[in-house]
Amino acid sequence: MTEYFRRTVLEFFTDKKLLTEQFTQNLLSWKHSGFSIDNSVRILDERSRENLAQYLARPPVSLKKIHYEGFKGRVLFHTHYNEYFKENVHMFNACDFLAELTQHIPPKGVQLIRRYGLYSSRIKGAWQSMPHVAARAPTGWKIQQESQMGISNPEDFETFENTDFSDDSPDTHAYKKAWARLLSKVYEIDPMVCPKCGSAMKVIAIIQEPEEIKRVLRHLVKQGRPPPGFDPASLN
Hints:
The protein is mainly alpha-helical. Among the domains are: 1-37, no CATH class; 51-105, no CATH class; 205-236, no CATH class. It has helices at 2-15, 21-28, 46-56, 94-102, 121-124, 131-134, 139-149, 172-187, 210-222, and strands at 66-69, 74-82, 87-93. Helix 1 (2-15) packs antiparallel against helix 2. The radius of gyration is 25 Å and the shape is extended. The N and C termini lie far apart (56 Å). Residues 156-170 have low confidence and may be disordered.
């Protein structure tokens, strides 16, 4: 059943073009896939949801579970007894331990935690137009919405059941700030800071017409300042 679940999930992500065929085959080749079916977990209250969220976002290993023996160059890993591996203590060579651990470190800019349903970025941005969801949203989200929606008490979201937010237009300035903040958080760069002099920049225009874009690119090529990796022949 676990293997069927594993292959079904990977097939779904491959069909949605979220994983490449090569990467999927690489995952299927793993001896210990990380997939499991555990029906002992029950999400019955707020505490259960919090525990599950902390588990999903936790680091790959706890420092409390490892002990480094510097004089022997070994790492002792101790945890609860695992029925699958049939052990609760494992001794690693220091280099082998680092090799195993670094497999869990994603490349720079890659986001491994993905959220779906109500917690997806697209739907979470529309919570305020869904009173039944907003009333049950985390307190932090409610507090964040206070200044934008004129709410003084987060619990007042429960009184919005008959309120229509469909005509509300998001603040354009807020969108721009969110765009820059997310790029800075994910890729560790600030798109609004000049990479040459470090001065603050601002968006002065958004050009979408293909001919206008080509006109700008031709000018940059003529000035000897084409975008990095740009092929001038593509303008012909």
